[in-house]
Write a structure and sequence with these properties.
It is a single chain. The protein is of the alpha+beta class. The protein has 2 domains: 272 residues, Zn peptidases (Aminopeptidase, 3-Layer(aba) Sandwich), CATH 3.40.630; 121 residues, Alpha-Beta Plaits (2-Layer Sandwich). Helix content is 34%, strand content 25%. It has 9 helices and 17 strands. The strands form 4 sheets. It has a 6-stranded mixed sheet with strand order 1-2-6-3-7-16, sandwiched between helices. Strands 9, 10, 11, 12 and 13 form a 5-stranded antiparallel sheet that branches. Strands 4-5-17 form a 3-stranded antiparallel sheet. A hairpin with a 2-residue loop joins strand 4 and strand 5. Helix 1 packs across helix 3, helix 1 packs across helix 9 and helix 3 crosses helix 9. The chain binds zinc ion (ZN). The site of zinc ion has 5 residues, from helix 3.
Length: 399
C-alpha cells in the first residue's frame, strides 16, 4: 500500500518527469542522417547542454565526450555503496526530423495523458525517466550501486555515440560497468534480444550500346534482375533452412531495399546497383553473413557474370541477454510491482544495446512508449508509462 507521504513524493516525481520531458522535446536535436544540412534544429549540442546542466544540478559528476564536432556524449557518474554492481543507463539524444509532423514538432503539448512531439517516444521519454530515476536514488546520499548515465549521440544513423563510449570506457576495471539498461520505447516489455544487421551495395556491370540494337550491348539491369530473383529465393528457401528461428526474434532475413541503374532510356545500361539488408540472429557475424550471400550467388549457374559486393556501410551484431541474468530478474520484479506483470520479449529493430552487450555486459532494452509511434507524424508517449518507467528504474537500481 502506498502511504500518504510516498504518494506525495510520487506526485512530485510525476510533475518533474513531465516537465523534464517537455524541456527535452522542446530542444530540437535532429540527426542529419548523413545529409548535408545545417541549422538550429540539427545535432545534439543544445540538448547535451541541458542534460549536462540537469545532472550537475542534482549533484552528479559530468564529463562530455566529443564524438563529432558539435556532437558530444554526456556522461554522468555516481559512485555507489556496493562496489560489485555498476549499472549503465543509456539513452540517445538524437531524433528524426520534425518536418513531416501534424503539429509543431518541437512545441510539446499534453493531451489525454499523452505528451506529443518529435522525440517524445524515441527516445526522450526514456532519457527523462532515467534522469529522474538518478535524481531519486541519489537524493538520500550514495545509492546502492554505482551508476553511469550515458546520453548518447547518433543512434538513429550510425551508432557512433555508443561505439565511442564503449571504445573509451575501461570495462574490465574493478568497479566497472556490470549491467546496462538501454532506453527505447518497448511498450512495457523487457527486451532481452534484438536482431543485428548488415547492409551493403551490390553492383552489376554491362556494356553500353544504342538501344535500337540491344544485342550490341550487355544489359546490367537484366543481369541484376537475375541477382534479385536469386536473393528473393535465398530469403524464402535458403535462410529458413540454414538458420533455425530464434524463439523471440523469428528467422534471419534478407531484403533488397533499393535498385538503381542505367542513364537514359535509349542506351543499354552498363551499370546497376542494389542495396541489400540482411538481418542477423544472435551469434551471426555481419561480414560472414555477407560472404555467405556472395558465395550463394557465385554458385548460381544463371549468374555467370562478375558481381561487386561493396564493403558494408552498416554492420551491427544482434543482442541476446540470458533471461536468468540478474538485471533481467530485477526488471521483472520491478515491473511486477508497478504493472502487476512482467513480459520478457525480443524485437526485430536494432538499438545501442548490442554494442554494449558485445563487450560482455548483460543488457536490457526498456523504456516508455510504443516503437510503432517512433518516427511518425503524430509521435507521442503516454505519461503514465513515463512515470511508471521512473519507478521501475528506481526499483531495479535500488534492489
Ligand atoms: Zn530510438
Amino acid at each position: 500500500m502506498t502511504t500518504g507521504a510516498e504518494f506525495r513524493k510520487l506526485c512530485n516525481t510525476m510533475d518533474e518527469v513531465t516537465r523534464l520531458l517537455a524541456d527535452l522535446v522542446s530542444i530540437p536535436s535532429v540527426n542529419p542522417c548523413g545529409r548535408e544540412v545545417s541549422g538550429d534544429e540539427y545535432l545534439e549540442t543544445r540538448v547535451a547542454d541541458y542534460v549536462e546542466g540537469y545532472l550537475r544540478e542534482i549533484g552528479v559528476d559530468v564529463e562530455r565526450q566529443q564524438v563529432h564536432p558539435g556532437r558530444d556524449n554526456v556522461v554522468g557518474r555516481v559512485v555507489g555503496r556496493d562496489p560489485s554492481r555498476h549499472v549503465l543507463l543509456e539513452a540517445h539524444m538524437d531524433t528524426m526530423p520534425g518536418d513531416n509532423m501534424e503539429f509543431d514538432a518541437f512545441s510539446p503539448f499534453v493531451k489525454d495523458g499523452r505528451l506529443y512531439g518529435r522525440g517524445s517516444c524515441d527516445t526522450k521519454g526514456s532519457l527523462a525517466a532515467m534522469l529522474c530515476a538518478v535524481k531519486q536514488v541519489t537524493e538520500g546520499g550514495n545509492p546502492l550501486c554505482s551508476i553511469t548515465v550515458l546520453a548518447a549521440v547518433d543512434e538513429e544513423y550510425q551508432f557512433t555515440g555508443v561505439m565511442h563510449f564503449v571504445r573509451n570506457e575501461d570495462l574490465t576495471r574493478p568497479g566497472g560497468i556490470t549491467e546496462a539498461v538501454v532506453g527505447e520505447p518497448t511498450a512495457r516489455e523487457i527486451i532481452i534480444a534484438h536482431k543485428g544487421c548488415v547492409r551493403w551495395i551490390l553492383r552489376t556491370q554491362g556494356t553500353a550500346a544504342h538501344s535500337s540494337n540491344p544485342s550490341n550491348g550487355v544489359n546490367a539491369i537484366y543481369r541484376m534482375s537475375r541477382v534479385v530473383q536469386a536473393l528473393d529465393q535465398f530469403n524464402r528457401e535458403e535462410l529458413p533452412v540454414r538458420y533455425a528461428p530464434h524463439s523471440l526474434l523469428g528467422g534471419a532475413t534478407l531484403s533488397v531495399g533499393t535498385i538503381a541503374g542505367g542513364q537514359v532510356v535509349n542506351v543499354v545500361p552498363d551499370h546497376c546497383e542494389i542495396q541489400v539488408d540482411r538481418r542477423l540472429l544472435p551469434g551471426e557475424d555481419p561480414e560472414a553473413a555477407m560472404e555467405e550471400v556472395a558465395h550463394y550467388l557465385l554458385c548460381r549457374p544463371e549468374i555467370e557474370f562478375d558481381l561487386e559486393h561493396v564493403t558494408p556501410f552498416v554492420r551491427d551484431v544482434a543482442m541476446e541477454t540470458s533471461p536468468c541474468s540478474a538485471i533481467v530478474r530485477r526488471f521483472e520484479r520491478a515491473c511486477e510491482k508497478v504493472y502487476g506483470e512482467a513480459t520478457v520479449n525480443g524485437v526485430p529493430f536494432g538499438t545501442d544495446a548490442s554494442k554494449i552487450a558485445a563487450k560482455g555486459i548483460p543488457a536490457v532494452v526498456f523504456g516508455p512508449g510504443d516503437i510503432r509511434l517512433a518516427h511518425t507524424s503524430h509521435e507521442y508517449v503516454p505519461l503514465d508509462e513515463v512515470r511508471a518507467a521512473v519507478e521501475i528504474l528506481v526499483r531495479a537500481i535500488s534492489e
